[in-house]
Amino acid sequence: MESFNALPAERLKSELLACLAAPAWGAEVAAKRPYRDRAELFAAADAAAAGLSWDDVLLGLSAHPRIGERAAGASKEAAWSRAEQSAAAASTDKSELIEANRLYEDKFGYVFLIFASGRSQAEILAAARERLGNDPLAERAVVQGELRKIALLRLERVLDAL
């Protein structure tokens, strides 16, 4: 935790934005330094993610490509996204996933987000189809939870790299 607590403010901001592209989340996590241990950091990061406004969630979503699409660029978050979606991206036939993405975006107005790490394309497609049955308010809660899980996984990666 010493390395995390000692990160210069600009580097910390960059690392946290790579985890979750919502500046309010990163600012809240950074403001609570120093952390005694990982558990304290993750509890603060989790609480900050749970407390995001919907506008902040939408900012976070803006950094995520559609499921099954390869994230472009050399940024840390693009590399993480490619790794997280490796199972969905590996499929040769993505037509059903593309259609589920389109239906989802038509219904909710934003990209379908799921914690994809370790999930097959079939599991992701089933989740997308199931979530199409949600009402908008229920789906917002699911999206915020998925974004939170992704942010915490990425925060773990940041800590492991320090």
UniProtKB/TrEMBL annotation:
Top-rank taxon: Bacteria
Keyword Lyase annotated: yes
InterPro entries: OHCU_decarboxylase, OHCU_decarboxylase-2, OHCU_decarboxylase_sf
Pathway involvement of the protein, from the record: Purine metabolism; urate degradation; (S)-allantoin from urate: step 3/3
Keywords: Decarboxylase, Lyase, Purine metabolism
GO molecular-function terms, A-Z: 2-oxo-4-hydroxy-4-carboxy-5-ureidoimidazoline decarboxylase activity
Swiss-Prot/TrEMBL catalytic activity: 5-hydroxy-2-oxo-4-ureido-2,5-dihydro-1H-imidazole-5-carboxylate + H(+) = (S)-allantoin + CO2
EC number: 4.1.1.97
Pfam families reported in the protein's UniProt record: OHCU_decarbox
Transmembrane segments: none
Family annotation (NCBIfam families): PRK13798.1, UraD_2
PANTHER family: 2-OXO-4-HYDROXY-4-CARBOXY-5-UREIDOIMIDAZOLINE DECARBOXYLASE-RELATED
Name assigned to this protein: 2-oxo-4-hydroxy-4-carboxy-5-ureidoimidazoline decarboxylase
Organism the protein comes from: Actinoplanes lutulentus
